[in-house]
């Protein structure tokens, strides 16, 4: 990781590396690359042109530094403007002395190197993939659970409906059988009653016929008796009750 800030050396954008070796921190102005020797000693210290804040030349008295680059030492844990200024003063004495030193240094901007960016991107992608996989698994589990629950509910409802229908059919069948039995019993009773009535009527009619015949015979007999007795009386016989007496003529 590197720290980029505008130093007191005429607005130069300085890249301070975590490595504390001489030449590991390189300042690049107006998109210029450091010399091959400096680049070899600090390959991570090249600053993109988009981060350059000034096109002013760098004036440094270091014998191994060109007009476009300068080097300095910086502790990796330096985190305040005052500490940075003191370290700049110790390592870039001539550069700072020949420049107009500002009251305070501008705020630091954190720059991640390519390896760090790739690491964070890889971690972020891995996290996103894991989250997506977990979400998909959870959704699939929930969908399967809901489907199983729906199937179980449907099966239970179907079984209950079938049981109820069977019970209703059994009850209806029993009721139908009972109705048939009642109808048969009623028919049998009606037939028996009709037969009994017919027999009674026949017997009564026969009795009435016999009685009528006897009465008729009695009437006929009575009439005959009356006729006979009348004839006898007319002939002079005496009739007393059912007997008659012939009257003897005197000699």
From TrEMBL:
Protein name, as recorded: ABC transmembrane type-1 domain-containing protein
List UniProt keywords, sorted A-Z.
Answer: Membrane, Transmembrane, Transmembrane helix
Spell out where the chain crosses the membrane: 117-140, 146-166, 173-201, 207-229
What organism is the protein native to?
Answer: Elysia marginata
């Amino acid at each position: 990781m590197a720290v980029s800030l505008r130093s007191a050396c005429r607005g130069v954008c300085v890249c301070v590396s975590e490595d504390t070796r001489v030449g590991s921190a390189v300042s690049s102005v107006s998109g210029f690359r450091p010399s091959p020797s400096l680049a070899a000693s600090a390959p991570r210290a090249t600053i993109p042109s988009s981060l350059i804040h000034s096109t002013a030349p760098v004036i440094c008295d270091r014998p191994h530094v060109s007009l476009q680059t300068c080097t300095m030492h910086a502790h990796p844990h330096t985190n305040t403007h005052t500490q940075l200024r003191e370290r700049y003063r110790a390592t870039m004495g001539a550069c700072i002395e020949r420049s107009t030193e500002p009251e305070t240094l501008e705020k630091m901007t954190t720059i991640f190197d390519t390896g760090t960016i790739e690491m964070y991107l890889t971690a972020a992608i891995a996290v996103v993939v894991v989250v997506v996989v977990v979400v998909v698994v959870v959704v699939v589990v929930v969908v399967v659970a809901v489907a199983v629950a729906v199937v179980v509910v449907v099966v239970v409802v179907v079984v209950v409906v079938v049981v109820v229908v069977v019970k209703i059919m059994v009850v209806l069948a029993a009721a139908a059988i009972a109705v048939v039995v009642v109808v048969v019993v009623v028919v049998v009773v009606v037939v028996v009653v009709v037969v009994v009535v017919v027999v009674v009527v026949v017997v009564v009619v026969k009795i009435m016929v016999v009685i009528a015949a006897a009465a008729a015979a009695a009437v006929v007999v009575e009439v005959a008796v009356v006729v006979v007795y009348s004839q006898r009386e007319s002939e002079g016989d005496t009739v007393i009750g059912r007997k008659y007496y012939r009257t003897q003529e005197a000699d």
